[in-house]
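Hi there, hope your week has been kind to you so far. It would help a lot if you went through both lines with me. No rush at all, and the record is pasted right below:

***
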Amino acid sequence: MIGRLSGRIGYIGDDHVLIDVGGVGYVVFVSDRTRTALAGPGEAISLYTDLLVREDILQLFGFQTLLEKEWHRLLMTVQGIGARASLGILGALGPEGVGRAIALGDVSAVRAAPGVGPKIAQRVVNELKDKAPAIMALGAREEPPVTTARPAATVEVQAPEAPVVAPTQSAQAEAMSALGNLGYAPAEAARAVAQAARDTPDADTTTLIRAALRSLAPGG
């Protein structure tokens, strides 16, 4: 399994990019959103990848973040959603938008993706709503890309050690971050997560997100 490719852009096509890795060119299919974010030919690139294996073909699909890749893999479990339809949904909504639409039951948002009809959009929401919190938790704890730039100063300063955060505090922070990505205001997200944490003191991030969403839902 090829899980990630790092190299240089050979060229950018309508729905794919060629990545030169040590003299070997890999054709990687990407969403419109990912394609428009790419730099030009010759520039460095690093994408998470998912390999689709069929009897007559091997295809690589590329993603800017691990969150986007995991949403792709989850979307592919829905009947009627193939790799291209998944890229269409991710291209139209972005990974955070997909999570928001599914968690809030927004079928019309999923329908906005090209080639996705009302029945398939409804199926996506119905089949993935219970699985969404786990993917949202992954996005909440995903670290930003590591920069390779060197500091201008040559003097090294010892940074103070970061305070140790209890697992329950970390889970609450991740849950609030995930709810923030769904568009909830910080105050209401904090209240919902705090209530969920009081009800289940040892809850992990996924459990907190699921409980908070239930309390935030109309009539919850």
User: Anything to note?
Assistant: Confidence is low (pLDDT under 50) at residues 144-167. The longest helix spans residues 83-103. The beta strands are 4-12, 16-21, 24-29, 44-53, 58-63.
